[in-house]
Design goal:
The complex is a heterodimer of chains A (360) and B (358). Chain A has 360 residues and is mainly α. Chain A is built from 15 helices and two strands. In chain A, strands 1-2 form a two-stranded antiparallel sheet. In chain B, 51% of the residues are buried.
Chain lengths: 360, 358
């Protein structure tokens, strides 16, 4: 890892937000997320007034009367997909921030572990090779399980390449990740080549991501898989802050560096694997959210990790709203929206940063 | 009442037949000249629906020497595999499911004629031409195109006498339906939604003249509920609730799809179609009834009877028996007819009693 790459992090790490500043910032981001969610639940093909939505939301508690139609729309369609977008967006944002901290590279994202490419390969393999053999009722969970398995297998492969005597080499992990991604991409390409028209439809839906299929089982599995990452967030933040100085220095500060690396990789793979299995591969959120957050409040991981989760969630919920209303009555894949908006945004961000560096 | 197809057949049987030993030529749907010194005895068919069409045009499996693996599975799943058990032994390795030819396997079938998709670029055509084989390219999706490729194929296999009655039957049923629905004002036409995919992502057929299902809905006196949509397009369940169709047609491609998909869904079950029990899965005959095929007029009559039972009282079972006799030389049993129409699973759907054996 070159000095030039580490430098921006180290510089901004000096700008540590005080505890109250962090709390206020996170509170504002939570408010932003809530606003976006309210907007998402209020938006859709069927026009519902705020009063109708409130009635539908309160009806199960016996606090209001509502039409069966309104309740079904709000509770079985808009609410689950908004919650799944929150969950997946939060996982991607948080995981992206952890990866960028761990690799000390602003271009890192969970994809570097091979999670996304491995997940895609698992799902596509299930669609092309496995599904015809399965009864129809088992097919959607089979694709999700295969995606999850693919994500974890790819991560294990990367870890195997990167580990010697129980120690993870970060540069080796980066290279192993690149190779695993290429391999998984080629295998996916071959399967796509061998797929028929109908399977291609399935694959397309899947590789471009969607939260439209959100339902209670997928939501609870994703939530469970994301919990370790969320619970360890505070500990990881302190470890990543110390790692900015380098591994040896972090050890001197009393950080169990190897344990931190294993924890980071393990929890990210688990959470992102489940997110990919629930909603397909969705790009750019994991990359963009941490950058936005660092622009807003500096590079202290005690701020960057939770804030990236909140921003990632808000970004994905907003992208889902765009996916639903951009080409009404049709619906866009959400991964397309995040790439279409995220790509140019990221380019502008890089351009701005370059201008900033040049003017120093 | 004699069936419409039987009358058409009788009329065309009186026409003189061409000599089958003369050289044959057609300009295919990509504008290529296809020449054969004599009628093709051995035909390899790569597009999926074409295998069953060739069997129908010839009235036998004799000339079909190779097909798409998915064409074989459609034959094995449906009734065609029982009518022509020998079809299961026809090689299905001449192309990948995505229509990329396997040239060695294709050449091993020694075809006089290879039928391939047009409109999908030269990559799936050139290997066939480079191997010195004669290819005819077809386009799909509209009624005109269907008649055209059926006619071209019948010509090249030396069975032009078969195509006249089949096209006449299509014209006759089409004219009858058009006349019967002409006076129906727009707001009395049921709003019909066709879902080409349901189990893995909803794909709706748009109100688009290029989409066959749209054409059939209008021909049968309905209106396409998917207004503002082109092609087959992903939609969400809320959009379907917003359209609130009077009738929902489910595709026959997804094996495990049943009307419960709509009737038991918390949102879709609130549509008018579900509340009236007007949700139907498309039948599967010698080929699927949702895309165009040699059996399309049966599919048109089926839908017209469901949309306007007061205007159309065909004896669909008799029409099916006559059509299967002509197309495949097969006498449909009552049980087979029930199976094609899916009376076992959707016999209680709205207006479906008209299809029961009397």
């Amino acid at each position: 890892m070159s000095e030039a790459v580490i430098a921006p992090h180290a510089r901004s790490a000096a700008r540590l937000l005080p505890r109250t500043g962090r709390a206020v910032g996170l509170g504002l981001l939570a408010l932003l997320l809530l606003t976006v969610c309210v907007f998402a639940i209020g938006t859709g093909a069927i026009p519902l007034s705020p009063r109708q939505i409130c009635a539908a939301l309160l009806a199960p508690l016996g606090l209001a009367e509502t039409a069966a139609n309104d309740a079904a729309i709000v509770w079985t369609l808009r609410m689950p997909r908004t919650l799944l977008a929150v969950l997946v967006g939060a996982v991607l944002g948080l995981a992206g921030a952890v990866m960028q901290g761990l690799f000390r590279n602003p271009l890192a994202d969970p994809g570097l572990l091979g999670v996304s490419a491995g997940g895609a390969l698992g799902a596509v393999a299930a669609i092309v090779l496995g599904l015809p053999l399965l009864p129809e009722a088992l097919r959607p969970p089979a694709v999700a399980i295969a995606a999850f398995a693919g994500a974890l297998i790819a991560t294990l492969l990367v870890l195997r390449v990167a580990t010697t005597e129980g120690r993870i080499s970060i540069p080796m992990m980066l290279l192993g990740g690149v190779a695993t991604n290429a391999l998984a991409g080629a295998a996916t390409g071959f399967l796509i080549f061998a797929a028929d028209d109908l399977q291609l439809r399935d694959i397309l839906f899947w590789t471009m991501g969607s939260v439209a299929g959100a339902a209670a089982p997928g939501l609870s599995v994703t939530l469970a898989a994301a919990l370790p990452l969320v619970l360890l967030m505070g500990w990881l933040a302190r470890a990543l802050n110390a790692l900015i100085l380098g591994e040896a220095e972090a050890l001197h500060l009393g950080i169990p560096v190897e344990a931190a690396k294993w924890m980071a990789v393990g929890t990210v793979a688990l959470a992102v694997g489940a997110a990919v299995a629930a909603s397909g591969t969705i790009g750019f959120v994991g990359l963009v959210a941490p950058h936005l957050v660092r622009l807003l409040g500096g590079a202290d991981h005690r701020w960057v990790l939770p804030a990236s989760g909140l921003v990632g969630a808000a970004l994905l919920v907003a992208a889902d709203v765009v996916a639903r209303i951009a080409v009404v009555p049709a619906e866009l894949p959400i991964g397309l929206v995040t790439a279409l908006i995220g790509g140019p945004f990221f380019l502008a961000l890089l351009r701005g940063r370059r201008a900033g560096i040049a003017s120093r | 009442m004699p069936s419409r197809l039987a009358i058409a057949l009788a009329l065309f049987a009186a026409l003189p037949l061409p000599l089958s030993a003369q050289p044959l030529a057609v300009t295919d749907m990509e504008g290529r000249e296809v020449r054969l010194a004599r009628p093709a005895e051995r035909v390899a068919s790569i597009p999926i629906p074409m295998a069953s069409t060739l069997i129908a045009l010839d009235g036998s499996t004799r000339r079909l020497v190779g097909m798409n693996p998915l064409a074989l599975s459609a034959i094995e799943e449906g009734i065609l595999g029982r009518i022509f058990p020998e079809a299961r032994r026809i090689p299905a390795n001449i192309a990948a499911p995505n229509f990329v030819p396997n040239i060695e396997a294709l050449a091993a079938t020694r075809p006089d004629l290879v039928i391939q998709w047009g409109g999908r670029g030269p990559d799936i055509v050139r290997p066939i031409e480079n191997a010195g084989l004669t290819a005819m390219l077809i386009l799909y999706g509209t009624e005109d195109r269907t008649r055209r490729y059926m006619r071209d194929a019948a010509t090249l296999i030396g069975r032009p006498e078969r195509i006249g009655p089949l096209v006449a039957w299509r014209e006759e049923v089409q004219a009858r339906l058009s006349a019967g629905t002409a006076a129906i004002p727009p707001d009395a036409r049921p709003r019909v939604l066709y879902l080409q995919r349901a189990l893995s992502g909803l794909l709706a057929a748009g109100a688009d003249p290029e989409i066959y299902n749209h054409f059939v809905i209008e021909l049968a006196g309905g209106r396409n509920a998917a207004e503002g949509l082109r092609g087959f397009t992903p939609v969400n369940r809320e959009q379907i609730a917003a359209w609130n169709p009077d009738v929902i047609l489910l595709n026959s491609f997804e094996d495990a799809l049943t009307t419960d998909f709509v009737l038991r869904d918390p949102v879709l079950s609130l549509t008018t179609a579900a509340r009236r029990n007007a949700v139907y899965k498309m039948p599967l005959g010698g080929y699927r009834w949702d895309p165009p095929s040699q059996e399309s007029p049966l599919s048109w009559m089926w839908l017209a009877m469901l949309l306007h039972p007061d205007r159309f009282a065909f004896d669909l079972r008799a029409e099916m028996r006559a059509a299967f006799r002509t197309l495949y030389g097969h006498d449909l049993t009552e049980a087979e007819t029930d199976e094609i129409l899916r009376l076992g699973t959707q016999g209680n759907a709205r207006h479906y009693a008209a299809f029961r054996a009397r």
